[in-house]
Amino acid sequence: MSNVPSPLRYRESHEWIDPTQSPSPVGITDHAQAELTDVVFVDPPKVGAQVTAGQQVCVIESVKAASDIYAPVAGEIVAVNEALTSDPGLLNRDPYSSGWIFKIKPSNPAEFDALMDAEAYGRHIA
Amino acid sequence: MPGKLTKRPRFTTCPTVSDPAPLRRTPLHAVHVEMGTRMVPFAGWDMPVQYTGIVDEHKAVRQSVGVFDISHMGQFIVSGPGAEAFLNRVLTNNITKLQPGQGQYTLLLNGLGGVIDDLIAYRTSEREFYLVVNASRIDADWAHLETQLNKDDEVLMANASDFTAGLAIQGPKAREVAAAVFGNAASFPEHNTILVTMTDNGPMWLCGTGYTGEEGFEFFMPMETAEAWFRKIVDAVKAAGGMPCGLGARDTLRLEMGYPLNGNDLSEARTPLQAGLGFFVDLDKGDFTGRKALVAQKAAGLPDKLAAFRMAGAAPPPRPHYPVAFESQIISEVCSGTQSPSLGVGIGMAYVPLSAATPGSILEIEIRGRRFPAEVVKKPFYRKPSV
């Protein structure tokens, strides 16, 4: 069974964002990493980029396929996880913590309400 | 184009609009589903892409042993007093060199020297040959062979593909698995040999071949017996520290060896000389389909050649159809490309002009609009560490 932590918010496309932190870290869910398996490369977004909710911001690559990652909310990308450059497998091993991909400073925190909570996301992947 | 990360990103088992034919299932389909295997359409078949993960399965084959369902592959039995002469007339390698029990890698060409298929031909007896062909090319191969057959050839061709299942057991512990599964009933087939054993359930073909670069064998059998054999072999493979493996690992393993995949690296638009397979073409054995075109191409010089490259420095994995540049000009596209699980770098192959094909040449692979350097290298990409 996939791990779906409750304080996080989720997009249908399997990104999570932590609204309790500011700026908010974003990553992919345990379910997504299990589907992708073996992440081998992360093409990170640009720090300083202004993005809109649902905008494609970066790409992660598994052995088999490249997958787009979308911004869960609008805002400014303020940090990217440099550790993923040398160890992209963090996304598989620790998707909700050290495997975060980027941090975003939300321009409209109300957008968090449009995302799924853990219960809804759990149903989404069931 | 990168796709969306959706619930089941690329691994849909439903026929798409562009591919309306229902997918075929191997006799092991129900076992794969029972094992929770992720399935993927390949060459018209619903095939396992991975059981646990591509990298784990890949490493299992390099370090211990893996078993693959290869029931989608095709088998033709060509027999009769004229079988040897007929096959020597349509295949590139010299089949007269085979003793009963021996096999060789060979190619089936069209009249222009283009590759219809690459296959293994085994001589099972003086007058009988067993051909193992690619799943995607069974119909094309059969149709072509029929057009090449003359009325007075005294050849009988049988297509056993629909009745035959196959398993590939690959890895340094393949011998151990064979001993555990067959006991004294069959010996281990040495490299490029075939052992045909009659059992109560019909014949078994044990072939000392594979697509991974490791020691191992391919085992073909009547499809009714496949499930029992598969379960038995999976148990033996697991006992030896290995695991069942899908097409994902099969692809990364073969590409690390620089083995071509028909459809990616071979096509009817290019000759085996361009693909670097001249070793399997005997231009001196007498006439065969495509020979004239190959001789002419050799005389004129090759327009391009399949070059192996590895990414230089951190880069996304190269994938099929990515543009390839040389001296700033886009000259080609990637045929096969992946991240090498053994080497931890992106590797691939592309047809490039001879000036760009020498080892040490620097190509650029264009990935999402950015160019990443790649160095042309000799095949294989991966060499077994000497013990």
What's a concise summary of this model?
Chain A has 126 residues and is α+β, with helices and mostly antiparallel strands. Chain A is 17% helix and 32% strand.
Write the layout of secondary structure elements.
The complex is a heterodimer of chains A (126) and B (387).
Chain A: E1 9-10, E2 15-17, E3 24-28, H1 30-36, E4 39-43, E5 50-51, E6 56-62, E7 66-70, E8 75-80, H2 83-86, H3 90-93, E9 102-106, H4 118-124
Chain B: E1 3-4, H1 29-34, E2 38-42, E3 45-50, H2 54-63, E4 66-69, E5 74-79, H3 83-90, E6 103-109, E7 115-125, E8 128-133, H4 138-148, E9 156-159, E10 164-170, H5 174-182, E11 194-199, E12 202-207, E13 216-222, H6 226-239, E14 243-245, H7 247-256, H8 291-300, E15 305-311, E16 323-326, E17 329-339, E18 346-352, E19 362-367, E20 370-377
Parallel strand pairs in B: 4-14
Antiparallel strand pairs in B: 2-3, 4-10, 5-8, 5-9, 6-7, 7-8, 10-13, 11-12, 12-13, 15-18, 15-20, 16-17, 16-19, 17-18, 19-20
Poorly predicted regions of chain A are none
Helix-strand topology string of chain B: EHEEHEEHEEEHEEHEEEHEHHEEEEEE
CATH fold category name of chain A: OB fold (Dihydrolipoamide Acetyltransferase, E2P)
* H/E element order of chain A: EEEHEEEEEHHEH
How many β-strand runs of chain B? 20
Strand content of chain B: 25-35%
Helix content of chain A: 10-25%
Task: Find the structural class of chain A using helix and strand composition.
Answer: alpha+beta
The CATH class of chain A turns out to be: Mainly Beta
The structural domain count of chain A equals: 1
The two chains with the largest interface, and their residue counts, are: A-B, 25 and 25 residues
Give the helix/strand class of chain B: alpha+beta
> Taking strands numbered 1, 2, ... along the chain, how are they ordered across the largest sheet of chain A?
1-2-3-9-8-5
Give the N-to-C terminal Cα separation of chain B.
Answer: 42 Å
